[in-house]
Design a protein that fits this description.
single chain; mainly alpha; 10 helices
């Protein structure tokens, strides 16, 4: 099917509104505004397609809403945690001197990204509204469920562990299998969203824009994992137990023997 540009424009407008609080605190653009934009799009289009949405497509939208609500709640709770205050303060200092035009560019950029991430769901909603069953949705939804479960459990395990052991890296639960299970879960979730829309990509634009959103978020999560690796190396690098941990537990993908993203990225420079 062709892209319903009027609906894409509406989705972009919703994201612009929800992302506006980022002008107050820049890091909101990629945290609370991110979660809010996904949840808001889910609600808006659930209402618009209320007469035609059903079955697996409904579950797809519910999962996107759950993703946004869960992430937003987690970020809001974490922001009130005194142990996280220093990191937030550093983020504010890094962005305090950003010019207005720079903030506007970030606002437009993240709003576009949030729109592209939601695009596969918008296309499956539109396809179902035309009376066509989007056959790729069931498997995509199953992948989304797996990703959401991994990310949610990983966030909860790390939050609980760091509350009790603030000066130690988290190496319990899912973190025994992979060092960044939360990022892996998010990558898996968005791959599931993209996969669910496969049967609705009826034009070159649909393929290009949906892939652009997927590639960007996957690259962003990979960069985030590399950044976390750098921070942990700086903080724990002189500890023998940490060195044993990073040599034996993969950085991002479970059971894939990739132990350092920083070293990998250096090779490609």
């Amino acid at each position: 099917m062709t892209i319903p540009w009027h609906l894409v424009s509406l989705a972009f407008a919703v994201c612009l509104v929800v992302a506006a609080p980022g002008f107050r605190r820049v890091y909101y653009f990629v945290s609370l505004c991110y979660a809010g934009a996904i949840a808001a799009q889910s609600l808006v289009f659930a209402l618009l397609f209320s007469n035609t949405i059903s079955g697996w497509v409904t579950l797809q939208l519910v999962l996107l809403l759950a993703y946004g609500v869960r992430l937003g709640a987690f970020l809001a709770i974490r922001e009130r945690n005194p142990a996280y205050a220093a990191e937030l303060a550093r983020a504010e200092r890094r962005t305090a001197d950003l010019k207005l035009w720079h903030r506007i560019a970030i606002w437009l950029g993240v709003s576009l990204l949030f729109t592209l991430l939601f695009l596969p769901a918008l296309l499956t909603l539109s396809l179902q509204a035309e009376g066509v069953w989007p056959v790729s949705v069931p498997l995509g939804v199953m992948i989304m469920v797996a990703g959401l479960w991994v990310e949610s459990l990983a966030d909860w395990q790390k939050y609980r562990y760091k509350a009790e052991h603030p000066s130690h890296y988290c190496d319990v639960g899912l973190y025994r299998t992979v060092r960044c299970p939360n990022y892996f879960g998010e990558m898996l979730f968005w791959f599931g969203v993209w996969f669910s829309g496969l049967s609705a990509y009826g034009s070159g634009w649909a393929w290009a824009l949906s892939l652009l959103g997927l590639v960007y978020i996957e690259a962003l999560m990979t960069a985030a994992a590399a950044g976390l690796e750098r921070k942990q190396d700086e903080r724990y690098g002189d500890r023998a137990d940490y060195q044993d941990y990073v040599r034996s537990v993969p950085i991002l993908f479970p059971w894939v023997p990739l132990y350092s993203l920083r070293k990998l990225l250096v090779r490609f420079r």
